[in-house]
From TrEMBL:
This is HRDC domain-containing protein. InterPro entries: HRDC-like_sf, HRDC_dom, HRDC_dom_sf. GO terms for molecular function: nucleic acid binding; nucleotide binding. It comes from bioreactor metagenome. The lineage of its organism: unclassified sequences, metagenomes, ecological metagenomes. Pfam families: HRDC (PF00570). Residues 134-214 form the HRDC domain.
């Protein structure tokens, strides 16, 4: 599953960099006199790097697309994702709260004050994805998912930075056929349209041509049009 592969790649990268950083710190402490300034500099750099990577990974977890009609499999999956999210959130909290110089007492004080952020994931679906799908054009939806994953894989880019679940769903529902229309899709700003828009539009255009379809963006405009307040 591309989603899990993406998570695994991010975890492997964190582990690799973490191992190198651990060796750096060990070398600093192995010297006869610890260079406090250099140690503080390396710790600050590590904090910036790891909090950024952890944020990317937790945002990826929030985009979980998995569904199954097996309660047992769904429960195992949900528990695994929740555990990973909790552990990452705690590490992010510790990195942001602990300050140099460190102490064991301060570490446990900060650790005990941690509260798990709100997070929900539910892979259980009473109806299997193969039977029905909530978007208007499920075939297009999966083509867009495939493209999104293809874009993400080379540089291990978190999926939410390219196109999250709601973004994919809206494209598959409303069939935007121009950059102007794509800007009306949830999650697409000017920069993202310039970077990824052409690739998504090609897939949508080909699908529409093959199925004799036209853009449905006018439905989105009507759906989101705010109600006018009555004058008193």
């Amino acid at each position: 599953m591309p989603f899990l592969k993406n998570i695994q790649q991010q975890l492997v990268e964190l582990d690799d960099i973490g191992s190198k950083f651990r060796h750096q710190v060990e070398n600093i402490f192995h010297k006869s006199e610890v260079d406090e300034d250099f140690l503080s500099e390396r710790l600050d750099a590590a904090k910036t790097f790891f909090t950024g990577k952890i944020h990317d990974l937790t945002e990826t977890l929030k985009q979980s697309p998995a569904t199954t009609d097996s309660r047992e499999n769904a429960q195992n999956y949900n528990d695994g994702i929740k555990t990973l999210f909790s552990e990452l959130s705690q590490k992010d909290y510790l990195l942001n709260k602990l300050q140099h110089p460190f102490s064991v007492e301060n570490y446990f004080t900060v650790k005990n004050s941690f509260v798990i952020p709100d997070f929900t994931v539910n892979a259980y679906s009473k109806v299997s994805a193969g039977k029905t799908f909530k978007v208007n054009h499920p075939k297009l939806y999966f083509r867009l998912i495939e493209l999104r994953n293809k874009i993400c894989e080379p540089d291990n880019t978190p999926i939410y930075l390219v196109a999250g679940s709601k973004t994919i769903e809206e494209m598959a529902d409303f069939l935007p056929l121009s950059e102007k229309e794509l800007l009306q899709i949830h999650g697409f700003g000017k920069a993202k349209v310039e970077k990824f828009g052409r690739q998504f539009l090609e897939v949508i255009t080909d699908y529409c041509l093959d199925n004799n379809l036209t853009s449905r963006m006018y439905e989105k405009s009507v759906e989101e049009k705010p109600k006018k307040k009555r004058k008193k």
